[in-house]
TrEMBL record:
Pfam families: Redoxin. It comes from the Bacteria. This is TlpA family protein disulfide reductase. InterPro entries: Redoxin, Thioredoxin-like_sf, Thioredoxin_domain, Thioredoxin_ResA/DsbE_sf. Residues 13-154 form the Thioredoxin domain. It comes from Inhella gelatinilytica. Coiled coil: none annotated. GO terms for molecular function: oxidoreductase activity.
Length: 155
């Protein structure tokens, strides 16, 4: 699926633009589209079962969800594997304590201009893109979290 995402014609989106209202097939949340999460800040992560850094990011995203859900954060990981069984095997080894959806077509990644995995986007409560990020390293996690927390409503 990386090849399909890498050849997507869509360029990365500009911050401040309305995020594409992508479908979220088979989500483990009561939603069908990204717009169903309006009113919450969404950390949208694009991942695949073969992605090594994705394994590192899942425990961090679980902590992120647990620590900031009460302030309006929703972590949502959109899987791009062509075979659902591959994603399910990954999730059996690396559980997700946050929202997960499955997009074997890769359409969501194309609409966000994803060029590699993992890739992420932060979307504000009004559905506007704040920023996009490619890759994941544990040493950059504190800075990512700081930027996410900045976007959350003040307590």
């Amino acid at each position: 699926m990386l090849a399909a995402a890498g050849t997507a014609s869509a360029a990365a989106l500009e911050p401040g633009t309305l995020a594409p209202d992508i479908a979220l097939p088979q989500a483990n949340l009561p939603i069908g589209r990204l717009s169903d999460l309006r009113g919450r800040v969404v950390y949208l992560d694009f991942w695949a079962s073969w992605c090594g850094p994705c394994r590192l990011s899942f425990p961090w995203m679980a902590r992120l969800q647990a620590n900031h859900q009460a302030r309006g954060l929703q972590v949502l990981a959109l899987n791009l594997d062509e075979r659902r069984a591959d994603a399910d095997a990954f999730l059996a080894r690396t559980p997700a304590a946050f929202g997960v959806a499955f997009d074997a077509s890769g359409e969501g990644a194309k609409r966000f201009g994803v060029k590699g995995m993992p890739s992420s986007a932060l979307i504000d409560a009004n559905g506007r893109l704040l920023w996009q990020h490619r890759g994941f390293r544990l040493d950059e996690a504190p800075e990512l979290e700081r930027r996410i927390v900045e976007a959350l409503p003040r307590q």
